Amino acid sequence: MSDSAPTQGCTTCRNGHLCLSRGLNAREAALVEDIAQRKIRVKRGESIFRCGDPLDEIYAVKYGTFKLTLGTAEGREMIAAFYLSGDIFGTDGFESDTRTSTAIALEDSEVCAVSWKRLAELAQQEGAIQKLVTQIFSTRIGRKQRLMLCLGSMRSEERVAVFLLDLSERLKERGFSDRHIVLRMSREEIAEHLAMQLETVSRIFSSLAREGILRVNHRKIQILDLQGLATVAQAGVQKNRAF
């Protein structure tokens, strides 16, 4: 992991509509940009923070992909989330100012590091920035709730479909194709995230390909039938709403 010189600010970043300047006017965005000057490059497989580290900064993904891992009571590792360009992460453990998770780069990546203390001070002074901070935490909570819903009573096929649809929608928000996906995570990591067996994930990808919903070429996924994939996912969502 290494620091790099700042090359681009929040107001000119292609991820600005998703990231730390979203919803802010030019003056407010400049205030945030001023405290987001430190850029950190993280090589594939390296961690930017580990469980137990002090929580002094949060991070915005400039480019690349990260996984967030948690230790379970049984001593196993669970992947709680995947973060793409434009995502903000690193808020877990803010109640005690100590990290409760580990963030690892899935590819060579770069983040903008933001002092949590300075951002909190700005939030006290600027209503729009306070709203932004609230949205950051709301997004974190919402993502956890969706994961718990997914793991609660959905069948394996439904979990995989929900995962792929979520990834498709997030890529579309970033200006990429929502039908052509290059997975930055392995099948094993997807299985860990969805609390499934590796063999089950592989079987479901093959099954969706046979049904004409996906075309699968290693980590390259083409969604051939977006509505068909949504139908598989919706079955699980509707089932959970019934309870």
From TrEMBL:
SMART domains: cNMP, HTH_CRP. Residues 20-140 form the Cyclic nucleotide-binding domain. PROSITE patterns: CNMP_BINDING_3 (PS50042), HTH_CRP_2 (PS51063). It comes from the Bacteria. It holds the Pfam family HTH_Crp_2. InterPro entries: cNMP-bd_dom, cNMP-bd_dom_sf, Env_Response_Regulators, HTH_CRP, RmlC-like_jellyroll, WH-like_DNA-bd_sf, WH_DNA-bd_sf. Coiled coil: none annotated. Keywords: DNA-binding, Transcription, Transcription regulation. Residues 154-227 form the HTH crp-type domain. GO terms for molecular function: DNA binding. This is Transcriptional activator protein Anr. It comes from Ralstonia holmesii. The lineage of its organism: Bacteria, Pseudomonadati, Pseudomonadota, Betaproteobacteria, Burkholderiales. The gene is anr_1.
